Amino acid sequence: VQLQASGGGLVQPGGSLRLSCAASGAASGFSFDYYAIGWFRQAPGKEREFLAGINFIGSSTNYADSVKGRFTISRDNAKNTAYLQMNSLKPEDTAVYLCAAETLGPGRPGAGNYNFWGQGTQVTVSS
User: Fold this and answer.
1) How far apart are CA 110 and CA 119, in angstroms?
2) 100 against 25, higher pLDDT
3) Per-residue confidence (pLDDT) for residue 55, from 0 to 100
4) Residue 8 φ/ψ, nearest 5 degrees
5) Looking at residue 26, what is its pLDDT?
6) C-alpha distance from residue 53 to each of 8, 41, 45, 58, 126 (Å)
7) In this structure, are residues 2 and 100 in contact, taking their beta carbons and an 8 Å threshold?
8) Structure confidence at residue 33 as a pLDDT band (50, 70, 90)
């Protein structure tokens, strides 16, 4: 499974961004709805932090307390894409944002639960 995160950029405090995570598979018969998706971020000198997860069919989500009420995870299985809508952004949200996939997973915290990782996209919140 290959994952590509996009949609990052520079935004002012209080602003919004929507990140996308596009998935593809090398093998024939790849099915995006076989995988839970998690969003994580990593700032310089800090550990990778779980933000949000969505299960493989999109019926259940999990959020870190630090982003609950500000970030929303969603997925469109027909487009093989997951999203992270980020509102009310703060300077402390500045980091590289990554998406990851877990086979038939619930979208739970814990980077070790995820089998596949994509390249990150930089989000900078600054005036």
Assistant:
1) 18
2) 100
3) 95
4) -70, 175
5) 67
6) 18, 12, 23, 10, 26
7) no
8) confident
d(C-alpha 120, C-alpha 95), whole Å = 9
Confidence of residue 28 (pLDDT cuts 50, 70, 90): low
Report the Cα 33 to chain-centroid distance in Å.
15
List all residues 6 or more positions away from 80 whose beta carbon is below 8 Å from its beta carbon. 22, 23, 24, 32
Q: What's the chain look like in SS3?
A: CEEEEECCEEECCCCCEEEEEEEECCCCCCCHHHEEEEEEEECCCCCCEEEEEECCCCCCEEECCCCCCCEEEEEEHHHCEEEEEECCCCHHHCEEEEEEEEECCCCCCCHHHCCEECECEEEEECC
Residue 89 has a pLDDT of 98
What is the share, in percent, of the chain residues with pLDDT greater than 70?
A: 97
Amino acid at 37: I
Q: Identify the CA nearest to 37 among candidates 123, 119, 118.
A: 118
